[in-house]
Protein backbone atom coordinates (compact mmCIF):
# COMPACT_ATOMS: atom_id res chain seq x y z
CA UNK A 1 0.00 0.00 0.00
CA UNK A 2 1.55 3.37 -1.01
CA UNK A 3 2.26 6.01 1.64
CA UNK A 4 2.15 9.79 1.25
CA UNK A 5 3.06 12.71 3.51
CA UNK A 6 1.14 15.92 2.81
CA UNK A 7 1.84 19.09 4.79
CA UNK A 8 -0.75 21.80 5.26
CA UNK A 9 -3.62 19.35 4.88
CA UNK A 10 -6.35 20.89 7.01
CA UNK A 11 -7.80 22.86 4.09
CA UNK A 12 -7.34 23.80 0.46
CA UNK A 13 -5.31 21.66 -1.93
CA UNK A 14 -3.70 19.65 0.86
CA UNK A 15 -7.06 18.57 2.25
CA UNK A 16 -8.47 17.77 -1.21
CA UNK A 17 -5.42 15.72 -2.21
CA UNK A 18 -5.37 13.82 1.09
CA UNK A 19 -8.99 12.85 0.62
CA UNK A 20 -8.44 11.76 -2.96
CA UNK A 21 -5.44 9.58 -2.09
CA UNK A 22 -7.18 8.08 0.94
CA UNK A 23 -10.12 7.15 -1.28
CA UNK A 24 -7.59 5.38 -3.53
CA UNK A 25 -6.35 3.31 -0.56
CA UNK A 26 -3.18 5.25 0.10
CA UNK A 27 -1.99 5.63 3.67
CA UNK A 28 -1.68 9.39 4.16
CA UNK A 29 0.28 11.17 6.90
CA UNK A 30 -0.94 14.76 7.20
CA UNK A 31 -0.10 17.81 9.24
CA UNK A 32 -1.35 21.34 9.90
CA UNK A 33 -0.69 23.90 12.60
CA UNK A 34 -4.18 23.71 14.10
CA UNK A 35 -4.86 20.33 15.69
CA UNK A 36 -8.62 20.99 15.81
CA UNK A 37 -8.84 22.01 12.15
CA UNK A 38 -6.74 19.04 11.09
CA UNK A 39 -8.86 16.61 13.08
CA UNK A 40 -12.07 17.98 11.53
CA UNK A 41 -10.56 17.94 8.03
CA UNK A 42 -9.66 14.26 8.10
CA UNK A 43 -12.61 12.98 10.11
CA UNK A 44 -14.06 9.99 8.31
CA UNK A 45 -11.14 9.52 5.93
CA UNK A 46 -9.68 6.02 5.95
CA UNK A 47 -5.98 5.35 6.49
CA UNK A 48 -5.06 8.90 7.55
CA UNK A 49 -2.44 9.56 10.23
CA UNK A 50 -2.85 13.14 11.53
CA UNK A 51 0.21 14.74 13.14
CA UNK A 52 -0.51 18.40 14.01
CA UNK A 53 2.34 20.88 14.23
CA UNK A 54 4.29 23.60 12.45
CA UNK A 55 6.58 22.52 9.60
CA UNK A 56 8.94 25.35 10.52
CA UNK A 57 9.69 23.49 13.78
CA UNK A 58 12.49 20.92 13.53
CA UNK A 59 11.01 18.77 16.32
CA UNK A 60 7.72 18.54 14.43
CA UNK A 61 9.50 17.58 11.22
CA UNK A 62 11.25 14.78 13.11
CA UNK A 63 7.85 13.65 14.39
CA UNK A 64 6.54 13.55 10.83
CA UNK A 65 9.50 11.43 9.75
CA UNK A 66 8.82 9.00 12.59
CA UNK A 67 5.15 8.80 11.59
CA UNK A 68 6.10 8.02 8.01
CA UNK A 69 8.52 5.30 9.07
CA UNK A 70 5.89 3.62 11.22
CA UNK A 71 4.18 2.85 7.91
CA UNK A 72 7.33 1.34 6.45
CA UNK A 73 7.81 3.39 3.27
CA UNK A 74 7.27 6.76 1.57
CA UNK A 75 6.07 6.99 -2.03
CA UNK A 76 5.07 10.66 -2.10
CA UNK A 77 6.10 13.80 -0.21
CA UNK A 78 3.94 16.87 -0.89
CA UNK A 79 5.29 20.09 0.58
CA UNK A 80 2.02 22.01 0.46
CA UNK A 81 2.18 24.10 3.66
CA UNK A 82 2.82 27.74 2.77
CA UNK A 83 2.92 31.17 4.38
CA UNK A 84 1.81 34.24 2.42
CA UNK A 85 3.31 36.79 4.81
CA UNK A 86 2.74 40.54 4.56
CA UNK A 87 2.41 42.19 1.15
CA UNK A 88 4.13 45.58 1.21
CA UNK A 89 6.43 46.66 -1.59
CA UNK A 90 9.93 45.28 -1.18
CA UNK A 91 11.42 48.61 -0.14
CA UNK A 92 9.28 48.40 3.01
CA UNK A 93 9.33 44.64 3.59
CA UNK A 94 10.25 43.82 7.23
CA UNK A 95 13.16 41.40 7.08
CA UNK A 96 12.10 39.46 10.17
CA UNK A 97 8.76 38.76 8.47
CA UNK A 98 10.59 37.73 5.29
CA UNK A 99 12.64 35.24 7.29
CA UNK A 100 9.41 33.70 8.57
CA UNK A 101 8.06 33.36 5.02
CA UNK A 102 11.27 31.64 3.93
CA UNK A 103 11.24 29.37 6.98
CA UNK A 104 7.89 27.90 5.92
CA UNK A 105 8.14 28.09 2.13
CA UNK A 106 11.81 27.24 1.54
CA UNK A 107 13.71 25.90 4.54
CA UNK A 108 11.00 23.57 5.88
CA UNK A 109 10.37 21.82 2.53
CA UNK A 110 14.10 21.29 2.03
CA UNK A 111 14.52 20.06 5.60
CA UNK A 112 11.71 17.53 5.16
CA UNK A 113 13.19 16.39 1.87
CA UNK A 114 16.57 15.93 3.54
CA UNK A 115 15.01 13.90 6.35
CA UNK A 116 12.94 11.68 4.08
CA UNK A 117 15.06 11.41 0.95
CA UNK A 118 16.35 7.92 1.85
CA UNK A 119 12.75 6.73 2.10
CA UNK A 120 11.78 8.35 -1.21
CA UNK A 121 14.85 6.91 -2.94
CA UNK A 122 14.10 3.43 -1.60
CA UNK A 123 10.58 3.62 -3.04
CA UNK A 124 11.62 5.46 -6.23
CA UNK A 125 9.11 7.98 -5.01
CA UNK A 126 7.90 11.44 -5.93
CA UNK A 127 8.50 14.85 -4.36
CA UNK A 128 5.92 17.55 -5.08
CA UNK A 129 6.71 21.09 -3.94
CA UNK A 130 3.67 23.32 -4.35
CA UNK A 131 4.69 26.50 -6.13
CA UNK A 132 2.90 29.53 -7.54
CA UNK A 133 2.82 31.69 -10.64
CA UNK A 134 4.25 34.38 -8.35
CA UNK A 135 7.52 32.42 -8.53
CA UNK A 136 7.91 33.33 -12.21
CA UNK A 137 5.84 36.53 -12.59
CA UNK A 138 6.53 39.90 -10.94
CA UNK A 139 3.44 41.09 -9.06
CA UNK A 140 3.56 44.21 -6.92
CA UNK A 141 3.30 43.26 -3.25
CA UNK A 142 4.18 39.62 -3.87
CA UNK A 143 7.95 39.97 -3.50
CA UNK A 144 8.29 38.01 -0.27
CA UNK A 145 6.04 35.08 -1.15
CA UNK A 146 7.03 35.05 -4.83
CA UNK A 147 10.76 35.07 -4.19
CA UNK A 148 10.36 32.27 -1.63
CA UNK A 149 8.46 30.16 -4.15
CA UNK A 150 11.11 30.94 -6.79
CA UNK A 151 13.74 29.66 -4.38
CA UNK A 152 11.65 26.55 -3.77
CA UNK A 153 11.37 25.99 -7.53
CA UNK A 154 15.15 26.06 -7.85
CA UNK A 155 15.68 23.73 -4.89
CA UNK A 156 13.21 21.31 -6.47
CA UNK A 157 14.97 21.49 -9.82
CA UNK A 158 18.37 20.81 -8.28
CA UNK A 159 17.03 17.92 -6.20
CA UNK A 160 15.62 16.43 -9.39
CA UNK A 161 19.03 16.71 -11.06
CA UNK A 162 20.90 15.31 -8.08
CA UNK A 163 18.49 12.44 -7.33
CA UNK A 164 17.67 10.71 -10.64
CA UNK A 165 15.97 7.76 -8.93
CA UNK A 166 13.07 9.96 -7.78
CA UNK A 167 10.86 12.49 -9.51
CA UNK A 168 10.90 16.05 -8.15
CA UNK A 169 8.14 18.39 -9.29
CA UNK A 170 7.55 22.08 -8.64
CA UNK A 171 3.78 22.16 -9.08
CA UNK A 172 1.94 25.41 -9.84
CA UNK A 173 -1.76 24.87 -9.09
CA UNK A 174 -2.88 28.28 -10.37
CA UNK A 175 -5.48 30.42 -8.64
CA UNK A 176 -7.76 28.55 -6.27
CA UNK A 177 -10.58 29.45 -3.91
CA UNK A 178 -8.57 29.15 -0.70
CA UNK A 179 -8.14 31.02 2.56
CA UNK A 180 -4.65 32.10 1.47
CA UNK A 181 -5.95 33.52 -1.80
CA UNK A 182 -8.65 35.39 0.11
CA UNK A 183 -5.98 36.72 2.46
CA UNK A 184 -4.09 38.08 -0.55
CA UNK A 185 -7.23 39.86 -1.81
CA UNK A 186 -9.05 41.03 1.36
CA UNK A 187 -12.60 42.10 0.80
CA UNK A 188 -12.71 40.84 -2.80
CA UNK A 189 -15.08 38.19 -4.09
CA UNK A 190 -12.94 35.21 -5.14
CA UNK A 191 -15.86 32.87 -5.81
CA UNK A 192 -14.88 32.76 -9.48
CA UNK A 193 -11.65 30.92 -8.61
CA UNK A 194 -11.78 27.12 -8.98
CA UNK A 195 -12.12 24.90 -5.93
CA UNK A 196 -8.92 23.08 -4.89
CA UNK A 197 -10.50 19.71 -5.67
CA UNK A 198 -10.51 20.63 -9.37
CA UNK A 199 -6.68 20.77 -9.29
CA UNK A 200 -6.22 17.31 -7.76
CA UNK A 201 -6.48 15.47 -11.12
CA UNK A 202 -3.37 17.36 -12.26
CA UNK A 203 -1.40 15.98 -9.31
CA UNK A 204 -2.78 12.50 -9.94
CA UNK A 205 -1.59 12.74 -13.53
CA UNK A 206 1.94 13.49 -12.34
CA UNK A 207 1.78 10.43 -10.07
CA UNK A 208 0.44 8.18 -12.82
CA UNK A 209 2.65 9.31 -15.70
CA UNK A 210 5.87 10.25 -13.83
CA UNK A 211 7.17 12.75 -16.40
CA UNK A 212 10.75 13.98 -16.01
CA UNK A 213 11.50 16.10 -12.95
CA UNK A 214 10.69 19.75 -13.54
CA UNK A 215 8.17 22.54 -13.12
CA UNK A 216 4.56 21.77 -14.13
CA UNK A 217 1.41 23.87 -14.20
CA UNK A 218 -1.97 22.39 -13.34
CA UNK A 219 -3.46 24.25 -16.30
CA UNK A 220 -1.26 22.25 -18.66
CA UNK A 221 -1.73 18.91 -16.91
CA UNK A 222 -5.50 19.26 -16.95
CA UNK A 223 -5.48 19.40 -20.76
CA UNK A 224 -5.94 15.85 -22.13
CA UNK A 225 -2.77 14.35 -23.58
CA UNK A 226 -2.72 14.38 -27.37
CA UNK A 227 -3.18 10.99 -29.01
Describe the structure.
- The chain is 45% helix and 13% strand.
- The chain is α/β, with parallel strands linked by helices and 227 residues long.
- It has one domain: Rossmann fold.
- Strand 4, helix 4 and strand 5 form a beta-alpha-beta unit.
- Helix 3 runs parallel beside helix 4 and helix 4 runs parallel beside helix 5.
- The longest helix has 29 residues.
- The radius of gyration is 17 Å and the shape is globular.
- It starts with a strand and ends in a 6-residue tail after the last helix.
- The model has no long low-confidence stretch (mean pLDDT 93).
What's the arrangement of secondary structure elements?
Layout: E1 3-6, H1 12-23, E2 27-30, H2 35-42, E3 48-50, H3 58-70, E4 76-79, H4 95-123, E5 126-130, H5 143-162, E6 167-172, H6 179-184, H7 200-209, E7 214-217, H8 218-221
Parallel strand pairs: 1-2, 1-4, 2-3, 4-5, 5-6, 6-7
Helix pairs in contact: 3-4, 4-5
